Amino acid sequence: MSVSDDDNWLRVLLSTRLDKLSSPTSISNLKYDLNAGVPDSGSLPLEPLRRAFDEVLSLNPKQALTYDTPNFGFEPLKEAVIEKIAETFRDIDSSWVSLVSGSAHGLDNIAATFVDEGDVILVGAPTYPGAIRTFTSRGAKLISVEQDEYGFSAAGLEASLTTGAASKLRIKAAYLIPNYDNPSSTLMPLERRKTLIEIARRHEILLIEDGAYAGIDLSGAPPLSLFQLAQGRGVIYCGTFSKTIATGLRSGYILAPPAVTKALKFMRFDNASSSLVQQAIHKFYTSDEYPEHLEKIQKVYRGRRDVVTHALDKYCKSFVNFSDPEGGFFHWLTLREGLSANEIREAAALQGVAISPGQGYYLTDHGEQDSRVRIVFSALDEESLVDAIRLLGKSFEIISK
Ligand SMILES: Cc1ncc(COP(=O)(O)O)c(C=O)c1O
Question: What's the burial of 202, exposed, middle or buried (CB within 10 Å: 0-12/13-18/19+)?
């Protein structure tokens, strides 16, 4: 982290925690950005949101424009969130829900509530860099557990917990993204979900389930969430409206047993999230327009995923392997032996294409990090995606000469 010379005297006052964190990923200004994992800007539900905000401000301005600290969330939106899972989880009610400013905030709130300095959180190798930054900033020590084709490894979890206990580590939680993992796009099968719940229960650790890409289902419905399967016992679920509605709303939710929800609220120092935004989301989320919107964006993303899959086969086949993502926003590429992710990032940048090399998704040096690349299919239109992948193929040819 750098501070300008003028402010140099302030630098010595900065928390030492800043030096422990990697840089956040950013939006690139290259011609084609296959790096930033953002939704399609052309599919944002502008009109319904405009109407919803208008209605809220006309009908309920006082409640919408004041602190919501007693509740930490607009009650009808909490109800709407749990209604979606009520069929498989009958005992849940709104005392299980707190509304947060996006799942990034949710993860931070969970970390603030559970982590003491030096506590261990297990994360996937690879995993979401934002979670690495968040947990580390709250004083957690992170240890990685391998991911395989089914996601977070059950054998890896068991082994880490056993060796952790032998070394007297205080392992508190495992963080995982079972639906369309960021970055690997893995969809965890039902059996693996059940196994992880059983292991976590036996070792009495918490599972933090990140559902950021829930709803971006491109090949059918996923299995039930770990939270649903465990009926909330030992699992906290962090959800968001970012990927299905809009990132700029900064709105999401945490599902946890009522006693934990109370603790999560106690550890909020932000005077609650925006009630105005939650009320507007509620109008849209409970309207007939929402399922239509969801179907529409799934169609857009399915088309883009397929276009990228075909373009990779056409232009990059001899350089990469990948599995077709069943949802989410990413293709996770394994490079042919001898190719370097950092080299291809540099070469692709010269062609005007931004990609993310694997490095940022691993804790420290990991054998895989320089042979993995994440590319995003959600944000660019099909024509741009094809051209970007063509240029990526050209970059591979240049570096492999
Ligand atoms: C896995 C995962 N979790 C959480 C987030 C944070 O999303 P938001 O704070 O917008 O809900 C992201 C964003 O990219 C993500 O990929």
Answer: exposed
